[in-house]
Write a structure and sequence with these properties.
This protein is of the alpha+beta class and 156 residues long. The chain contains two helices and eight strands. Keywords: Signal.
């Protein structure tokens, strides 16, 4: 009695195509990178700290809710820093010129910032910090460049 090998060949072909499709989909998922160019600094004292938020939770002042954050020493202006390995999506960025290197957003007795700060999309600041949607940028490709101009309300 001779058995047909057609079902075995079909199953083998099906598995090969399925595995190949999964491999192509995994390879096609590209991680994104945001490069920040931060300008408008009043001086080169201290460091620039940036926090990246993927939602309105904690934006812009609660760094614990940021998905990524980091600080770089100011050696030249503009300051360039980046966030790598991001999924495509909407992100908002808060930046602080930490002139005294204390990793805090210093304020006066009235609660007004005494150090420079800025946000992605450079929204107008009138009576308080921007909402997430006012600063959110869509990251879809491999590289997204964002320019942020710092603001100083007092001194600096």
């Amino acid at each position: 009695m001779i058995q047909s090998t057609k079902p075995l060949m079909f199953l083998t072909s099906f598995l090969f195509v399925s595995i190949f499709s999964v491999a192509v989909n995994v390879q096609a998922e590209t991680k994104s990178k945001i490069t920040l160019t931060i300008d408008g600094l009043k001086n080169k004292n201290g460091q620039i700290c940036a926090s990246l938020f993927a939602s309105n939770k904690g934006f812009p002042s609660n760094g614990d809710d940021a998905i990524k954050s980091g600080c770089v020493s100011i050696t030249e202006v503009p300051v360039v820093m980046s966030f790598d390995n991001l999924q495509p999506g909407s992100y908002a960025i808060a930046v602080l010129h930490d002139a005294n290197n204390d990793k805090m957003a210093n304020r006066n007795a009235l609660g007004i910032p005494t150090e420079g700060f800025g946000f992605s999309k450079n929204p107008t600041i009138l009576t308080g910090p921007p909402k997430f949607n006012d600063a959110a940028v869509v990251v879809a490709g491999e590289n997204t460049n964002i320019n942020i101009k710092l603001m100083y309300l007092l001194g600096g």
